[in-house]
Amino acid sequence: MRLWPIRSILGIMKIATQMNKTSSAPKQGFSSWIIPLSWGITVLLVAFMLFLLLQRLPSALISASAAPDIPQDIEEVLPEDTSAQASLPEFIPLAGEKAITRSASTNTVIPSSFRNTPDTYTVSSGDSVFGIATSYKLKPETVLWANYDLLNDNPNMLSIDQVLTIPPTDGIYYKWKEGDTLEKVAETYKASVRDILSYPGNGLDLTAEEHTIEPGTYVMIPGGWRENQQWLVPTVWKSGAGASKSIPGACDVSGGLVGSGYFIWPADNHYLSGNDFWSGHLGLDIAAGTGAPIYASDSGVVVYAAPIGGGYGNMVMIDHGNGFHTLYAHLDSIAVSCGQNVVAGNIIGYAGSTGNSTGPHLHFEIRQMGAFINPWHVLP
Questions:
Q1: How much is the pTM?
Q2: Averaged over 20-34, what is the pLDDT?
């Protein structure tokens, strides 16, 4: 589109402005009516130029404002034969060019990380309840509770080739019993009835007025919790400590060395190879190969040095005479005897995999006045 109308308008306005400036100081021969006359002519010329400009606008801009008529029946605009399909042009690679072809798939892929139903897992060498739970992004208690028939809440009872049930989410995987109700079960395991009903894997109708669950049916209780019923080695006290020996084969010791209250690592490795400290495992599984030396973590008197049940295998316990005891389990062999004085750093045995163990390591516990404390809090 030509721009001469716009240039003309600008030129006229420029001339009019100059005329106004010239006439603003009246000179001889000019009448007082020349100023309003010049402005009137200017206005008329600008209006005429705008009219010409509008005449040159594309007709499409004007006609676009009018909406087309929409047929009342859609069939009026459809072809009689609707079976025809448009086809896309075929892609043909250029000569010498390589191309990747991929066939279309209409299947929806569900992420494998999301589960509504339990898995099974076969225990292999080096496994621990803590490690298995971590791989499934679960709390170790969840795995322990779901396998009570095998482990009896004792992670030290884990053995190679055991087949574990792995719940789909954290909580209690519960086997329904005769006389159970949702309210009773939820209260027992400190959970919500609504959470049980709404969990997809349970297949329960959230809107139903009554819910009948057959005895023997497994139900997931999301967020459920209960106390662990552990089998623990009793603490063995020296004579005069206000308690007596409570394990057959323990020593009846009086006096002896007293510890400093400061602990050293009982193995050369300062990292774990199995269970960490948690509510179901009140100690550390420290990495140690078969035959690796195990050291007294502080000075004291050996009050137990022999095999023991509960999955601990060969075990040494030291009374440090200041309220602390340390325990060393799964030893391949024991290098001290009951009643012997030991100094921090003395070799008391060699690492192994005795008792219930899926691989060599050291199970290490620290107790204070009979209560378990987290070794991470006191080890350097």
A1: 0.64
A2: 55
What are 195's two structure tokens? 């959470």
Q: Are residues 206 and 273 in the same domain?
A: no
SS3 50: helix
The string of DSSP letters for 100-166 reads: -------PPPPPTT--SS-EEEE--TT--HHHHHHHTT--HHHHHHHTHHHHTT-GGG--TT-EEEE
Question: Can you read off the two tokens belonging to residue 19?
Answer: 């005329």
* Band (167; pLDDT cuts 50, 70, 90): very high
What is d(CA 108, CA 138) in angstroms, rounded to the nearest whole number? Answer: 26
> Which pLDDT score is estimated for 17?
60
pLDDT of residue 8: 58
- Biggest CA–CA distance in the chain, Å, is 141
246 lies in some domain: yes
Q: Give me the domain span that covers residue 280.
A: 232-380
Comparing C-alpha atoms, which of 153, 136, 135 is closest to residue 144?
153
Identify the pLDDT of residue 265. 98
pLDDT value of position 348: 98
Give the separation between CA 134 and CA 130, rounded to whole angstroms: 6
CA 312 to chain centroid: 32
344 Cβ contact partners less than 8 Å away, ≥ 6 residues apart? 259, 260, 263, 264, 295, 296, 297, 298, 299
Residues 167 and 244 reside in one and the same domain: no
Name every residue whose Cβ is closer than 8 Å to that of residue 15 and which is 6 or more positions away in sequence: none
- Structure tokens, 76: 């009026």
Among 132, 114, 135, smallest CA distance to 123 is for 132
Residues 272 and 292 in one domain: yes
